Amino acid sequence: MREMQTDPLTTTFAALADPTRRAILNRLSRGEATVLELAEPFEISLPAISRHLKVLEQAGLISRGREAQWRPCRIETPALERVDGWVGHYRKLWDSRFDRMDSYIASLTKGTPDAEQ
Amino acid sequence: MREMQTDPLTTTFAALADPTRRAILNRLSRGEATVLELAEPFEISLPAISRHLKVLEQAGLISRGREAQWRPCRIETPALERVDGWVGHYRKLWDSRFDRMDSYIASLTKGTPDAEQ
Fold first, then answer.
1. Positions of E strands within chain B
2. CB B91 within 8 A of CB A84
3. What is the ipTM of this complex?
């Protein structure tokens, strides 16, 4: 029930709020991998890795092959693109801050006290 | 204890995994606001808004003025810039996908399998 009411961005951010899951995504950004390959660098159990993969899959951040034995994991970008789009809305806040700093520095080097605001 | 072991990115993603908190950030991206102003568009209690603000503040996404009465909230960008940097690492995944699509379309329209340019 709760699952259905949660918007995609909330599900994605919740899935990303874990360093192990972000490390798994990082590994998958270099190519497909099996659960065993993904588990190797971590000192946690296979069932724990599987739980993390399930969270990532439910958030649409990864998909898994259908071959029963291997089921290779693959990174999926649409959820990440949504995060990119979301944070992009705020990018102007620090861009404009740097723009202001640029014009301030320019006004200093010119020695003219440029029209303040 | 748990708080101290959590890395900044995890804290930030956890704070962003809530539509009300993201709506508050969106409002603050247009300028400072008091708790009362922030609460106005939401059908939730002031204490609930205050709890959301505390989560955002602990994640470094907002700061609050020290004047006891008003304590205006202000958006802080470093945590968002960290999210931007993190997702930026993955941007090449969909950029390269579009690049590949571009060269495929180019090869189709030219009728040659190899791109000259």
1. 62-64, 73-75
2. yes
3. 0.80
| Closest chain B CA to residue A74 | B93
Contact (Cβ atoms closer than 8 angstroms) between residue A107 and residue A113: yes
Q: Find, in chain A, the residue whose alpha carbon is nearest to that of B30.
A: A93
Of A10, A19, A91, the CB nearest to B17: A10
Residue B89 touches partner A, C-beta closer than 8 Å:
yes
**Set of chain A residues whose Cβ sits within 8 Å of the Cβ of B7:** 19
The alpha-carbon gap from A103 to the nearest alpha carbon of chain B, in Å, equals: 20
pTM, rounded to two decimals: 0.80
Q: By three-state DSSP, how is residue B78 classified?
A: helix
A19/B9 Cβ within 8 A = yes
- A103 CA to centre of own chain: 33
- Measured between CA atoms, how close is B59 to chain A, in angstroms? 12
**B43-97 confidence digits (pLDDT tens):** 889 999 999 999 999 999 999 988 767 789 999 999 999 999 999 999 989 887 6
Residue A60, classified by CB atoms within 10 Å of its CB into exposed (0-12), middle (13-18) or buried (19+), is middle
Query: A12 Cβ partners below 8 Å, 6+ apart?
Result: A59, A60, A61, A79, A80, A82, A83
Q: Which amino acid is at A52?
A: H
